[in-house]
Amino acid sequence: MKKLPYTLGLDVGGSVVKCLALSPTGGELFRQRAPHCGAAHAPPGHSGAAGFLDAARNCAAECVHTLEAPPAWTGVAAPGLAARDGRSIAVMPGRMAGLEGLDWGRELAAPGYAPVLNDGHAALLGEAWLGAGRGCQNLIMFTLGTGVGGALLLNGRIFTGALGRAGHLGHICLNPDGAPGITRIPGSLEDQVGEFSLFSRSEGRFETTAALLEAVYNGDAFAQSVWQRSIRALACGIASLINVADPEGVIVGGGIAQAGSALLEPLEQEMNAVEWRPVNTGVPIKLAELGEWAGAIGAARHAMLTAKPEEEIRTA
Questions:
Q1: How confident is the model at residue 92 (pLDDT cuts 50, 70, 90)?
Q2: Which member of 114, 126, 154, 226 lies 3.0 to 4.6 Å from 297 by CB, making a disulfide possible if both were Cys?
Q3: Rounded to two decimals, what is the model's pTM?
């Protein structure tokens, strides 16, 4: 009996490769996480990519064995800026040696080719398909963690920009007199919200968001003021980008988003003060739903969309 087609998504991270096989309507068929040693023990000829490349190959092979058929589509999500031809990551300085320029379609022997997408872009595409953004054509996603990242979905497509750097939402300027960040922008949203700067923002009292929130829950007035300033900065960043992109919704993910109502409730209050609402209705802000699998889901979806026009595969 002929096997039904499926799409395979691989999310390649610095220590784990996540592999997910889905039906064209989003039904899960296979899932696997494969830890790897990175590029530390790469043999000659692998350009430093042996760890994550071998993990990806092994996951894909196990999927084919389990489902008794190769995928109809294969997509890859990875950190860095995707190449304009979509076959590789073009720019990823400083870590994951061997990732830049790696042609994933060739390495995985994928049919056609395996389109590659930045992992943040892939996460939003996953949320738009099966997560918090289902049914929306225009979305903004913020990922709040050590830093602040994100992505834009405009008219149903991930907006990558001219060089692939679109979506670095944490690097908008909220304070022109602030210190320059890694992209040279002064007073960035990332600097005022990201966990990496929490120690300095809290005068050396807190190193993690979890510790800060514990103090907030315990009624620590100083901790509450630090948290409220962070929420205010985030609201200003979100409202500014709403004015730019006019989305149907905003999705918030990442480690800081695990604060749940402790994040959303004060954020809603700040949005009431700063959001422009021409029709008296604010843009809905939702927590991401897909967790660590959003990137693999987005990679799988991207592979289908790249292979065929969306109307030919949209059956859900």
A1: confident
A2: 126
A3: 0.90
